[in-house]
Design a protein that fits this description.
The protein is α/β, with parallel strands linked by helices and 236 residues long. The protein has a single domain, classed as 3-Layer(aba) Sandwich (Rossmann fold), CATH 3.40.50. The chain contains seven helices and nine strands, in the order βααβαβββαβαβαββα. The strands form two sheets. The protein has a seven-stranded mixed β-sheet with strand order 6-3-2-7-1-8-9. The protein has a two-stranded antiparallel sheet with strand order 4-5. GO terms for molecular function: phosphatase activity. InterPro entries: His_Pase_superF_clade-1, PGM_Phosphatase.
Length: 236
């Protein structure tokens, strides 16, 4: 089977990544939409998938808005079943200032996205079940469960729309990364990783492919590079 794992398009929180940690936390949205640039990224991604004749039976996405919106845009072209899957959410969960927020309820999801299948675990209490931030260990265990479930998957090809930090945990699980390792599996917005399972285990066919994104759509595009050069003070 094939699992195409894609990070969502640039979100409104991603736009402010260059701020200090405190500034970022003060401005960070709980559940942001994708930005105008993110919409362009997703459209480029969709064109690229079609140009490579990549097909899939189903799209599965995180319950967070940036992943859902990415799935919606892709499915305007693909028109396959889409499932909102609770355990694909970003590392840390749905939280602000380390306080857990339940998020949309099942009925709210159904009203907002009537064309999507909603994970059975999402009911009246929302989709995030803790009153605090998810820990790294809890996230690692969740990633292991996602991979184990995919081992037993019957479909031959699935597109998963997820998040950068959780995708790092998934890759760490697949690759057997040591728990205290400092290595991080980075994914660009809309970067694609293909995992294949021959029945014995997953192998990485390709990782974080974002070759289809034009330079001015990248977060590290020419305008940002020139800005940093202008502010360069001789420090390395």
């Amino acid at each position: 089977m094939k699992i195409y794992y894609v990070r969502h398009g640039q979100s409104m929180n991603n736009v402010i990544n260059d701020l200090t940690d405190q500034e970022y936390e003060n401005l960070r949205q709980l559940d942001p939409q994708i930005s105008e640039q993110g919409i362009k990224q997703v459209k480029l991604l969709t064109d690229y998938l079609k140009s490579r004749k990549i097909e899939f039976e189903e799209i599965r996405c995180s319950p967070q808005q940036r992943a859902i919106q990415t799935a919606q845009l892709i499915n305007e072209v693909y028109k396959v079943p889409v499932k909102i899957q609770q355990n694909l959410h970003e590392k840390g969960g749905n939280q602000l200032q380390n306080k857990g927020i339940p998020g949309l309820t099942r009925k709210e999801f159904q009203n907002k996205y009537p064309e999507f299948e909603i994970d059975e675990i999402i009911q009246d209490a929302g989709w995030y079940f803790q009153d605090k931030r998810e820990t790294d260990e809890e996230c690692r265990q969740r990633a292991e469960k996602v991979i184990q479930d995919l081992h037993n998957e019957k479909k031959k090809s699935i597109l998963i729309i997820g998040h950068g930090n959780f995708m790092d945990m998934v890759m760490g699980t697949v690759c057997g990364r040591a728990q205290n390792s400092k290595y991080f599996y980075y994914h660009q917005n809309c970067g694609i990783t293909l995992l294949k399972n021959d029945g014995y285990g997953f192998e990485i066919d390709f990782y974080n492919d974002y070759s289809f994104l034009e330079m001015h759509y990248l977060k590290t595009g020419e305008d940002l590079i020139l800005k940093r050069l202008a502010n360069y003070k001789g420090k390395i």
